Amino acid sequence: QVQLVESGGGLMQAGGSLRLSCAASGRTFSSYGMGWFRQAPGKEREFVSAISWSGGTTYYADSVKGRFTISRDNAKNTVYLQMNSLKPEDTAVYYCAADQGFGVHTTVRAYDYWGQGTQVTVSS
């Protein structure tokens, strides 16, 4: 069982930056693929970014490529999402997710554990 707790969300003006953190419990964090997803009101949860267990492979949604950076620190059981050049359309609840497998996935159903989410609001 893995518990995930997101933090770092908040209100930011367009063009600003935020860094989200996701702290994981459990001794096997370093073996999990990790992902970030987001869900805006009235919309389905969508993929944002993912990172392999080693950090050597990363994926990004086209909408955030070049603006967001995912990283992880296995010694701290934490995955990060650095978000730069924020836009109003980035407004959503951001969720951290863990995959027990060694792959890197972009679909919701591939992930086994989810955090409760952190709100990110970007004003124009």
Description:
By secondary structure, this protein is mainly beta. The protein has no helices and 11 strands. The strands form 2 sheets. Strands 2, 4, 5, 6, 9, 10 and 11 form a 7-stranded mixed beta sheet that branches. The radius of gyration is 13 Å and the shape is globular. The model has no long low-confidence stretch (mean pLDDT 95).
Question: Can I get a quick summary?
Answer:
This protein has 124 residues and is mostly beta strands. It has strands at 4-7, 10-13, 18-24, 33-39, 46-51, 58-60, 68-73, 78-83, 92-99, 113-114, 118-123.
> Could you tell me the radius of gyration in angstroms?
13 Å
Task: Please state the structural category.
Answer: mainly beta
What count of helical segments does DSSP give? 0
Quaternary organisation of the protein chains: single chain
- Detail the poorly predicted runs: none
The outline comes out as globular
What string gives the helices and strands in order? EEEEEEEEEEE
Percent of sequence in beta strands: over 45%
Average pLDDT confidence is 95
End-to-end Cα distance:
40 Å
Fraction of residues in helices?
under 10%
| Topology, number of strands | 11
Q: What layout of secondary structure does this protein have?
A:
Layout: E1 4-7, E2 10-13, E3 18-24, E4 33-39, E5 46-51, E6 58-60, E7 68-73, E8 78-83, E9 92-99, E10 113-114, E11 118-123
Parallel strand pairs: 2-11
Antiparallel strand pairs: 1-3, 3-8, 4-5, 4-9, 5-6, 7-8, 9-10, 9-11
Provide keyphrases for this structure.
mainly beta; four-stranded antiparallel beta sheet; seven-stranded mixed beta sheet; 124 residues; 11 strands
